[in-house]
Design goal:
Blueprint: H1 27-36, E1 50-53, E2 59-63, H2 65-74, E3 78-83, E4 90-94, H3 96-113, E5 119-124, H4 130-145, E6 149-155, H5 164-177, E7 182-191, E8 194-201
Parallel strand pairs: 1-4, 5-6
Antiparallel strand pairs: 1-2, 3-4, 6-8, 7-8
Helix pairs in contact: 1-3
Length: 205
């Protein structure tokens, strides 16, 4: 079982050298880093001597690997190699099964909180009526509030392509109405019968 105390500990990230006493490593970060790597546990640890950290985060000092394993056995804990590249390697007493379970759960929760930005499209026509315009604007506003980018697409039909300024006027009107929620990432670009622009959501809306 792993406890955290405010006393100095070693940096126990497997890929980083151990830090000097007085530099603390938060257990949550440590759990995530160890869980991402395949680490040696108990009898898999063969190098001796090792620098031992006890279950409360205190440095025990440099001891033989046999003594470290014996301490772990007496306390019903595992001996886990947390900094194999240090000389000597750094090992720690912990309940490794419980440790991995907590790390996996923390990783799942972190993934749930991650947001993948998507590009949502909202289509207009040059002669759009006000009620249709407001309906589409609400969709664009919702997409931006959700943290997504919005592609505003103006579709021209037939002779409408000869008056692109009418479509541009609608797009710029939408841009002004969405100013509290977005910034312009790409200004209107006219190709064939389509005019498009891209808005990005503002942070800390």
């Amino acid at each position: 079982m792993l406890f955290w105390c405010g006393r100095p500990t070693l940096n126990t990230h497997p890929d980083e050298p151990a830090s000097e006493p007085g530099v603390e490593t938060p257990p949550a970060q440590e759990r995530a880093k160890i869980a991402e790597k395949r680490v040696r546990v108990n009898e898999q640890i063969r190098i001796s001597p090792v620098r031992l950290i006890d279950e409360s985060g205190r440095q025990v000092g440099i001891v033989s690997v046999d003594e470290a394993r014996a301490r772990a056995a007496r306390k019903g804990l595992d001996l886990v190699e947390v900094a194999p590249d240090s000389r000597p390697p750094v090992v720690r007493l912990m309940d490794y099964g419980k440790y991995k379970y907590k790390a996996a759960r923390a990783a799942r929760e972190a993934r749930k909180k991650q947001h993948t930005v998507q590009l949502k499209e909202v289509k207009f026509r040059p002669g759009i009526e006000n009620h249709d315009y407001e309906f589409k604007l609400r969709h664009a506003r919702r997409f931006l509030k959700e943290g997504n980018k919005v592609k505003l697409t103006m579709m021209f039909r037939g002779r409408q392509v000869t008056h692109p300024e009418l479509g541009r006027e609608v797009l710029m009107r939408a841009t002004r109405d969405l100013t509290p929620y977005a910034r312009v990432e790409q200004y209107p670009n006219f190709e064939r019968n389509l005019m498009t622009m891209i808005l990005s959501p503002l942070r800390n809306q």
